[in-house]
Every structure is written in C-alpha cells, then in structure tokens.
Write a structure and sequence with these properties.
Blueprint: E1 7-15, E2 25-33, E3 43-44, E4 48-54, E5 59-64, E6 66-67, E7 79-85, E8 92-96, E9 103-107, E10 118-127, E11 142-150, E12 157-158, E13 163-168, E14 176-179, E15 182-183, E16 193-199, E17 205-207, E18 213-216, E19 231-240, E20 247-257, E21 265-267, E22 270-274, E23 281-288, E24 300-303, E25 313-317, E26 322-327, E27 334-343, E28 351-364, E29 367-369, H1 373-394
Parallel strand pairs: 4-11, 13-20, 22-28
Antiparallel strand pairs: 1-2, 3-6, 5-9, 7-10, 8-9, 10-11, 12-15, 14-18, 16-19, 17-18, 19-20, 21-23, 23-26, 24-27, 25-26, 27-28, 28-29
Protein name: CAD13 protein
Keywords: Calcium, Cell adhesion, Cell membrane, Cleavage on pair of basic residues, Glycoprotein, Membrane, Metal-binding, Repeat, Signal
Subcellular location: Cell membrane
C-alpha cells in the first residue's frame, strides 16, 4: 500500500518498579525507513493528446503527462517513453523531462505538409524499475498523439543545384547559356514562379523572368578576376506568388574554355649598359601570356627591321619563354628604343609589337651615370642639320 511518508519515528518508553510512579523511566527513538517497491504502473492522464506543428520546423511539440503513485524521484516513479507505432521515418523522438516526469515529444526531421498533413503516434510509458510480479502495465499506460501539420509557403527549388555548363569565353553577346528549372514544393497551391539575377559579379548575364533562360549581356572573359580556376559563378532567384512570396536560390557554375585572345607581354621593358662594357649581352627578356596552352608558349622573339647601314643589336632565343638581347658594338651614351615583336603559339597566333628601352650609361669608378644629356645633344644636332638642309633647298 502507498504510505504518506517512507520514514517513521517511534518513541519507546521503559519503566522499572513494575510501572509504579515511584519507578525510573527511560526513552529511546526508533527510526523506520520503508523501501518503496514498484507496485503502481504509470498511467497517462488522458488517452489522446493533440499537437500542431508547421512543416519544416523541428523541436518539442507537446508534453505528455502521466501519474504514478510510487515514491517520486525513484526508479519506480521515473517514466520511460517509447513510440511504438506511427514513426516509420524516424521523424519523431520522445524524451523524459527529469523534473516533471512528462514525455517531451519532438520533431527531429522536418515534416512535409504535401506528403502528409496528419500523423498518429501510439506511445507507451513504463518505469525505469520493473514492476513487481503481481502488477502489470494496463491500457492506461499507452496513449495516442494526433499531430496536425500546417502548410507553410516554401521557396521554389532549383533542379539541379548547383547547375553547371561549359562555354567558350568569347561567345557572342546574347548567347543562351542554359534554361534553369525550378519547381515549387507547394504543389497544392498552384503558384507561379518568376526568376531574377541575384549575384552576377561581372555583370555578364541576364535571365528571362518567365521561362528562366539565361543569356549573356557581355563577352565572357576567362582571364577576368571574377573567374576562379576557369569557373565563373553566378546566383539566381526563383520567387513564387505566395503571400508573402517565398524565394529559392540557385547557383550556376560556367566553365570557360580558353580562346587565344591575349597577346603575350614582354618583361623587363628597361635595360642599362655601360658605354664601355666588355660584356655586350644586355638583358634576358621573358614573355608571359594570360591564355592557356596551347595559346601561350613557345614564344617567337624577333627584332623589327633596324634602320641604317649597320646593325646595332640582335636577339637570340634561349628557351620557349625567354630570349637574350646582345649589342653588336659599344654604343655612345644615349637612350635607345629597340623594337621587338613576340608571338604566341595560338591558332591564329597573336603578336605584341613593343619596345625595349635601352639606356647606355657612362660608368666611372663603379658609378653609372644614365642621364640623357648626350641623347638630347644628338637630337638637337639632328634638328639643326635638318633645318640647315631645308634652308639650302629653299635657297639654292
């Protein structure tokens, strides 16, 4: 039987002299602790519980209450809950609240209204400790939970996501990249979808708001700083007609194939040499190209035609990417521009005609003087000679 308290205290009195008033008396206290046995099964406070949850949401949706006449805070009182039916997808879990002994029923996998708007769970409750042999769990140790799922306006979903496509980098403006496909999970609401550009870092793309066709508004450039590892990434939105509208995001990866659209560049563009140098190898030139193979090296290095009766320099190839400029004689202190062309191996090849600025300097006591006074002097002399020639022709 259930007792009001598991602890009792008894005061015991003993008298001598046969209990006469003239006798002596002694007292003692006896404390009796009564161990509880699990002789009462837990029982739900009602046979059916109700819960409502929005689709796509997780967390506790209802607390199930039980009564148990055993000693609280013991294994004979503490409840253990189990879902025994209605949870094939493992969307629900139930745990015991240690303070109240209630069963906290939770959604752990978001529910989908379009798949099922109602769920019925059968839950049983037991104790941590086993019941004594003469006691059994009865019908009141099970209960039904009726769960209603509320519809929520969900954003459209792109298929697939991310989307991938491969295009040449120089396709004409207005070319179709691809047509996206987004569907609305709210199949019972019959909503329409419109599309828009969300993130287009280089501003190369547009999308038809009705049919989802993506086209180019500019030339795609694989060498752009907005392209990483040959891939350009843009984001698009699909917005439904719900109230309020819901939005889904789709990612597009465009792999750009290389086209020979960059001329090679030459470095360095400035070289210095002493006017009395014994080593007439002026500089090693290198070339680079933003394109990919086979639209880059091996490069072809050439000197443009040299004016005058004698040649002053030549260029020799060292390897696929480098060449060397050599003076054929010592030159007077001045600034010279050496015209050089470098051509890549693309089909068709591209050529960059550029100039190497060569400063011939006077070198005394390990100091290099590269001021262009001599060059200025030469220029003034040429101007005076030209004027004198014109004057002679005008007045024979």
């Amino acid at each position: 039987q259930t007792m009001e308290s598991p602890k009792y205290e008894l005061v015991i009195e003993a008298k001598d002299m046969g209990g006469l008033d003239v006798g002596l008396t002694g007292t003692a206290t006896a404390t009796i602790l009564i161990d509880d046995k699990n002789d009462h099964p837990p029982e739900f406070t009602k046979k059916e519980f109700q819960a409502t949850v929005k689709e796509g949401v997780t967390g506790v949706i209802v607390n199930l209450t039980v009564g148990d006449r055993d000693d609280p805070a013991t294994g004979a009182w503490r409840a253990v809950y189990t879902i025994i039916n209605g949870n094939p997808g493992q969307s629900f879990e139930i745990h015991t609240n240690p303070q109240t002994n209630e069963g906290m029923l939770s959604v752990v996998k978001p529910l989908d209204y379009e798949i099922s708007a109602f769920h019925t769970l059968l839950i049983k409750v037991e104790n941590e400790d086993p019941l004594i042999p003469d006691i059994a769990y009865g019908p009141s140790s099970t209960a039904t939970v009726q769960i209603t799922v509320e519809d929520v306006n969900e954003g459209p979903v792109f298929h697939p996501n991310p989307m991938t496509v491969t295009k040449q980098e120089n396709i004409p403006v207005g070319s179709v990249v691809l047509t996206v496909n987004a569907t609305d999970p709210d199949t019972l609401q019959h909503q329409t979808i419109r599309y828009s550009v969300y993130k287009d870092p280089a501003g190369w793309l547009e999308i038809n708001p009705t049919n989802g066709t993506i086209g180019t508004t500019a030339i795609l450039d694989r060498e752009s700083p907005y392209v990483q590892n040959n891939i350009y990434t843009a984001l698009f939105l699909a917005i439904d007609s719900g109230n309020p509208p819901a939005t889904g995001t789709g990612t597009l990866h465009i792999t750009l194939e290389d086209v020979n659209d960059n001329v090679p560049s030459l470095y360095p563009t400035l070289a210095k040499v002493c006017d009395d140098a014994k080593d007439l190898r002026v500089v090693v030139l290198g070339a680079s190209d933003k394109d990919l193979h086979p639209n880059t090296d091996p490069f072809k290095f050439e000197l443009s035609k040299q004016s005058g009766p004698e040649k002053l320099w030549r260029i020799t190839k060292l390897n696929d990417t480098h060449a060397q400029v050599i003076l054929l004689q010592n030159l007077k202190k001045a600034n010279y521009n050496i015209p050089i062309s470098v051509t890549d191996s693309g089909k068709p090849p591209l050529t960059n005609n550029t100039e190497l600025k060569l400063q011939v300097c006077s070198c005394k006591k390990s100091k290099m003087d590269c001021s262009a006074t001599d060059a200025l002097h030469i220029s003034m002399t040429l101007i005076l000679l030209s004027l004198f020639s014109l004057f002679c022709k005008s007045f024979p």
